[in-house]
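Look at one record.

>
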Amino acid sequence: MKVNGWLDARFSDVREVFAEVLDAQPGTGASFAAWHDGRWVVDLWGGFADAARTRPWRSDTLVMPYSVTKPFAALCVLKLVERGAVDLDAPMQRYWPDLRAAASVREVLAHRAGVVALDADAPQGAFYDWELMCSLLARQEPSWVPGAATGESALFFGHLLGQVVRAVDGRPLGAFLREEICGPLDLDFHIGVADRDLARVADLTGFGDDFWAAQSGYPPLFERAIGNPPGARDPDVVNSRRWRQAEIPAVNGHGTARSVAGFYAALAHGRIVDPALVGELTRGRGEEPDLVVGGNREWGLGVALDQDGYGMGGTGGSFGWWSQAGQYAIAFLTGHIGDHDRGDRLEAAVREVLGLPAL
């Protein structure tokens, strides 16, 4: 498979790994970017953008990376915190009086609010109706006492935060993100794809037996949290115009690898919010069991944390990350749903060039 783009000559091995990744993807392609020492060192893309494999993946091809969207939503609220318009430790009811869950804004950002699943079956149309979805969330009892446990709010994180943005700013979260963060920083990332950009969006492929087999073995809350409303893992839904243009800020951002890596480079250097707030964002509580996706995880404010840095991965293998130890930003966005081994291999190749130990 032909690899397009460019890289610093030192990173030639990264191109080889990326070519191997593309060759192994039977569906749509991918993009990969890395920023280090004040400049871009890798910006690659390749493969096809449609399931029929007739439309080439280009430098500006957009793709949905699922939960990689969540930190973009979180930074919209943190921008308002920086301006003094939102109090991290205020109850959510200050901004959303109808919300039943007695969680603080901080607890929502840190995935400790417990609003992770709906008890009543919701129609797929709730994804496209902000008021309907929020009315369902407002009357939902949390799955645990807010603040008492951790679990990723897989589908609803963005609605919870979006209600805060709407209450204090008046704009939908997607418009706030475009006008306050992505526009000024020239980041090609969108929550709610505009008509003019629809032709640039890649199809998601790979929802076969292997994908569904990998969806087993999660905690009991997982299927309720990701499957109601239905459709978030249905290719006919997520590849539809209606889904791409909706505002589902936990999962349906669309962007390029360069835009996601650029987001983390800007965040780490205080270009989105001031360094003190970045410190708040990256201050965790240690690893805890995640009651939704399982395993032990440590959350900051809208980002996952580990010993090396912070960022977020998404269903299907996409991820964006800032390495505090290596001082690099990195992102892999794929159209073909699979595991995270592909991104791990690419990051390992970058780290080898930089003389960093394997993760």
The mean pLDDT is 97. The first strand starts at residue 3 and ends at 7. The chain has two domains: 1-62+335-359, 64-317. DSSP finds 13 helices and eleven strands in the chain.
